[in-house]
């Protein structure tokens, strides 16, 4: 069994944590290309098959904060193992599902495990590495997150074509068993834990609010923002969110999320807000550009995949470097500069037209990817270094929640802007591949350009938030090797 005194221990923990950070995003992105085959195999229509990815993402988003808080109270090692075990069982259940409802319920089980994995992994890394290496370690972790998001679609297509859609879930099982065994043998549990009871009422209210909000956002474009289903969902989200704040504000350290982290820790609050804006501005880019490349420029599926890979590869290269630099120079300038560069890349994308070439698109996507890579690692390091060691789970869960909500908001914002500047019928034609006229193409391009302008504005606003965040990193972390320094 490894010991924290072993010089290799921290790197062993990093490997184990990075696998968890990768598997959660991987299973959100691997499913997309397999949905047509799943729909055919299980006789699911669009209205039901869309719940296969939605159930997973909404479950993760609603439980991340609770998972982080629970890990602070009960210890990270065994909850991480439970998370991987639940994820693995959910994967097995998905692989043997015989109808749509079984698959959707199994995806919920997967999401419960995914939330535990994604919330605990960054906290384990932060608790294990000394302050002067934290940025580098979290940068490597960010690389694995991007790898999961990026290689999910091509891996899903490869497995589905070769072995059928069930193989995209079966592949998780040996990985899950291996990581559980390694975690039990390697990871030493942290003895410092928060005393008290888990805030069940707060966790339930937060989950109801976020589930209602995200489901409403997901289906609003299809059934209309003024439909009773959407209005009721948003009303439930507002009421549950308000009740959550009322219940939590007086609980202090016993709250699921200590409100002092938001009201008195400016660095924590502003860095999380900039993360939300970052993912809102960035995440929908690949989705929209994939349709632009194929429907407007006539690129093949292989060409489209190659162009889209340029952005995550750029992120994967830059993220560890920016994390390492943030250990030496501080995180604020790097994070702010990354947001600015990403916004410039989005502004570049807003200039695309029907005559643009693939190489131009690739350069613009690389610019966005470099900016994203510059931002993510330093910003994560700043957030994780701004809290006490017994609050690392809360910090990690909050950041992961911002990322997941930002991803959902990004798709909604881009879809709404494109529809507003063109028309819902044109958007539907583009997505179905049934564009029939130059006018429809021009309408889609106009809407896409407007969407990238809006996202660039969101990114620039996020850069401003990042630049004025203030605060001090490392002051309460409790890792004794280094005293805190200003960001």
Portion of residues in beta strands equals under 5%
SSE run: HHHHHHHHHHHHHHHHHHHHEE
Shape: globular
Assembly type of the shown chains? single chain
Notes on the protein architecture:
- The structure is a single chain.
- This protein is mainly alpha-helical and 487 residues long.
- It folds into 3 domains: 1-195, Growth Hormone, Chain: A (Up-down Bundle); 200-250; 265-487, Up-down Bundle (Growth Hormone, Chain: A).
- The protein has helices spanning 9-29, 35-42, 46-49, 51-74, 76-95, 100-128, 131-163, 167-170, 172-186, 200-223, 228-249, 260-263, 266-282, 285-296, 301-329, 332-349, 358-384, 392-421, 424-432, 438-467; strands spanning 472-473, 485-486.
- α16 packs antiparallel against α20 and α18 (392-421) packs antiparallel against α20.
- The chain is globular, with a radius of gyration of 22 Å.
